[in-house]
Every structure is written in C-alpha cells, then in structure tokens.
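User: Predict the full complex structure for these chains.
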Amino acid sequence: MIEFVNFFIKYFPDLYQGALITIKITAVGLGLGFVLGLPAALLRVYGGKYFRWLAVAYVELFRGTPVLVQLFVIYFGLPDLGVTFSRLTAAYIALGLNSGAYQAEYFRGAIQAIGSGQMMADRAYPAYTRGDNRHLPEQTPFAELLKSTQLGNMQPCPIHCPLFIKYYGNLSVAFQPGNRLNNNFPGHNIPLYLGP
Amino acid sequence: MTKPIIEVKNLKKVYGGREILKSIALTVNEGDTVVIIGPSGTGKSTFLRCLNLLTYPDSGEIWLDGKLINAPGVNQDKVRQHYGMVFQDFLLFNHLTTLGNVMIGLTKVKGLDQKTAKEKAMKELRHVGMQDHIDQYPGQLSGGQKQRVAIARALAMDPRVILFDEPTSALDPELIGEVLGVMKKLALEGMTMVCVTHEMGFAREVADRIVFMEGGVVVEEGDPNEMFYHPKVQRTKEFLWKITELYASSEKNNSRE
Amino acid sequence: MFINILFYILSGVGITLSVIAIALPTGLILGVLLSLIRVYGGTLFSGLAAVYSTIMRGIPHIVLLFILFFVIAGTINLSPLLAGAVSLAIISSGYQLEIFRGAIQSIGGGQMMAARALGMTKLKAIRYIILPQALRVAIPSWSNEVASIIKDSSLVYALGVPEILRRAQFMSASTYQPFIAYGIAAVLYFVMTFLAGRLLDKLETKTKIPCLQLEK
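Assistant: Here is the predicted structure of the three-chain assembly.
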C-alpha cells in the first residue's frame, strides 16, 4: 500500500499531464461524436434510400471494428495515402468517429421511440410538414435522451479510448507509469474518478 | 367435530414501520370455503401470504394440520407444498406451455416421472376445462384461461388448502365468470379454500364463512347469512352496503349456472 | 504483396478466435453467477457484486487488462494468451453482470413468488423458472457484449499475443503498407462481429417465448 502512495507522489506531474490530455480527448471526442451522430441518426430515420445507406454504413463500420484498429488506420494507415495527422488530431478524429457511431444509435433509438407519434401529428397539421418538421421530433427525443441512462453509458467509451494512445506517444495517463513499473499499479485511479 | 386444518393465533406483521397485521386469529376447517373481504391495502393479501409462509410473520402462531409451521427450523419449502396459491396476476411461467406449467411442480418439486406427471396434469387441466390448450403458451391465452391454468397448476400438487388472492381482480368482466365457475366447482367438491375477493355474489353463494378484515384486524366474521343480512358491527354494514350496490349490476353478468 | 499480407494476418484469426473462445464462455458463466449474487444474495454480497461491476465498467479496458494480466501472470504461470483471455473474461463479466441483472429483474419478482408457492426452493426456482426466461430475454444485450469482446480481443496485442492486430502491426512495419495491413485487420474484425450478430439473431428467433410480457 505504501509503495502505491509513494509511486503516486513521485509520478504525479506525469499523471496530471496525462489526465489533462485524457480530458481534452474525451471532450473533443464526445463533441465530435455528437456532431456526427445526430445527423447520422436523422439521416438513418428520415433520409432517402441512399443517405440512409450511407448512415448505416458509417454506423456499422465504426461499431463493428475495434477502436484501436480505427486509431491505427487513421494514424498509421492514412499517411500511406498521403493524409497525415498529428497524434492528438488522429486521436480526436478516431474517437470522434467512433463515438459518433454509438451516439447515432442512441439518438436513433430516442427518435424512433418518440418519432412515429409526432409524425402522425405533423401529418394532421400541414403547417408543420414544410421544413419545420425537423424541429418537432428533434426536441423531444433530445430531452428524452438527456434524461435517459443511455447518456451515462456513453461516457466510458471516450474515456476508455484515450488510453490506447499510449502506444505511439507518451500522451495519455496509463502509459507513463506502466512503462516504468512492471508490476500491477499503472495510473488507473485517475480514469476511475473520471469514469462513472 | 372436524379438526381445523388451519389455526391462526395472534398473527402480527410489520412492514416498513407500519403494523400491517395487528392481531389476526382465524380457524379454517376441512372443506371450508372462507372468504376474506375488506378495503384494499388493509393486509388481506399479506395475511394470505403469511399462511403459506411466503411472507414470514413477525409473531403469532400458524398451525397447519396440527403442526406449528412458523417455528424456527421448519422447512418452509415443504410447508408450501401443502398449499396451493392462485394470484391476482396469474404468474404463470411464461417459458412453459400450459401443460408444462402444470407439470413442473410435479416433476421438479415432487420428483414424479414424466408419464405420471403428465397424466396428473391432464386430469387437472380437464378439471378446469383447459385440456384443449395444452400446447399454448401463457402469452397466447386470455386472462380467464390463464387463471384457470393457474388453478390447475395449484390443484396438481394435491394441496390441503388453496389460497386465492383476488383471483378475478385483474380480469375483464366477461372473463370473471369462467374463473368463478371453476372456484365454485372446487368448493362444492369439498376443497378447503381461503379466498380474498371483492366478488360478493361468489361470497354469498359459496362461502361457509366470511371474514371482514380492516386495518390489520378481523372486524367481524360469520356465515354469509349473518354477515350480509344481519351484520353486527357498523363498519361491516357500511362496507357491505357500498360494495353490494357497486357489484349488484355486474353480479347479474357474472353468475354462471 | 497484398496476398502475402493477407495470409499472414489471416493466420492470426485462429489466435483471435482462441482468445474469444476462452473469454466468452468464462465471462458468461462468471457474469451469470455474479448477477445471481447481485439479485438474490443478501445485502452484503449484492453490494460487493455492485462494486465489482462498477470497477470493471469504470476503468478503461486496457488499463484493467494490464492490471489483471500482471496479477494473474505474477501468480500462476500462464501464457499471455490465456492470461489475456481470462483477464478479458473478468472485465466482460462486469458488463454481463449488469446485462443479466436487468434481464432477471425484468422477468419480475412474481415469477419467483409463484415458483416458491409451489414449494420450490430458491435454487430450483432460479434454475427452472428464472434463468430460462432471463437468458432468453438477455440475448439482444448480450449480443452487444459479444461484439465488445470480439473487438476487445485486439487489446491483447499489447501483451504480445500474435493475434490479428499484432500481425497487422508486424506487416505494417515490414512491408511499409500500413493502410493495407490495418485495413485488412479492420475488415476481419468487422466480419467477425457481423457474423456473431447474425448468429445471435438466429438464436433469439429460435428460442423466443411467444408473447412475453415484461415488467420494466
């Protein structure tokens, strides 16, 4: 126990830096995920044949493959095709895309739960069906979603994911201590507080 | 003088700080049909569940066939085999067919072999008139059908007493009759029954004794004639008057000959 | 060139599947047992199970993997593959605990009461009444968790296990074709999660209880 505390004190600055980065990545990841996920969900529920397919492809691709692999493709693979990102940017993109796919499903669930009833109301009141009808179903499910426990579930993913970044950069929390210590106490306590 | 099957003395139960059962005494003789009536939330269901130890009483005595069943060290599961229970929301096992529901007690609790269990189950299903539905699942049955299967399930265990906890309260009015019909049949065949119900017509016709319970105590009890026409306690009068008025019209629809 | 990369990475599929084949059933058994403790254990054990679930779900998988791996490998002499798979099972059991807990609770307390009214012991009731229903109800959520395990198997590359991602990494470094290498890896994982999802959908249809009504 005492060695745990000593370890923590000694490496605190590193852990602290790592924690900051973790928070940054989480925030950007969630934000980007929202920006991608909501439109994707809307496309999937309301879009025409081709747009819907696009949304489905995006969601299935990014939910059906490991985040780590996505990260590697973006950071290591894309330079092969001429597109290079910094470590941090690659992290933002990969986590954003991944989170977006999951958020799209949550939003889709919320929309579908509320949607059909609202759409029927729209049909009955034609004033709503031109252009405005996007707003009507959108507001309620969003509120529903915020209340729903689903949102709580989403947190862990972007927080868990930054930890992967360690392998190609001493960016995130876990790697530094893991590197210096070959027994079982990496800096797990910080993610634990950030997590649930 | 028939020996009482059930004797309850001074039963008490506290739930969440409230005394639900203050001091209940009851005697049930073999072949009796005892109907417990009273306003909702006054402990009638709790009392019923104490009888078969689904809810364990805090103090008092419950005697079944001359044995004290709420003593420490008594095997509660074995005790429950002597009771059958029929619930307000049926509580059939959803993953089993009608036949499966009736058989499972026989095979898994009593340890009978498949053949014997099936015969007994079919017998009880015929008894309640559900023999044509043996391969259907509870989700495919109507409320009245479900409840009849539930009764068959209870009967299959050859219980000493069957406890009915508001068996028709969750049913559509048109379906109440078929269930009451089965219950009436059982009563006439001499089954010992303790029923909590609001069906006054049934109580009047079939009960050997009616117990009016309120506020965790027995307010009054007596045979149907006394209770309905010459109640002694004022509160009993009030309650019965209100209930009978309310159910007078639906009784006409429910009585099944 | 492409074919070389492909075949080399494909040879990792067997390893990946082994990891999954160990982690999945172990996690399932552990998860179901723990969920039973969570629902039917007394206040103490139920609370412990809750803590277990919070820890497993609150810490990033890769961090947990390292912790568990070092603990396990430090005490017993297991290969990285086994130790990694067992660690994954332990992590997954935290999620599966919650899945089955939800399923059991949605079946409702009434089923247990009715079973006991027949004279069944709690154990018998769990085995013959609760679990048959809960397991079926849990299949959709569980299939999500299966996909999770398949994807998390990529994490054990960090322990040196020569599964798909590790091989992709090797190929990427030796052939300077990272996009192809990692792209193939991505496709392989996708195919696995897709097939698993389909299989479980079939299972759900086959075992469906007609017209089941659940409590929320």
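Strands of chain B lie at 4-15, 18-29, 33-37, 59-64, 67-68, 83-86, 161-165, 192-196, 209-214, 217-222.
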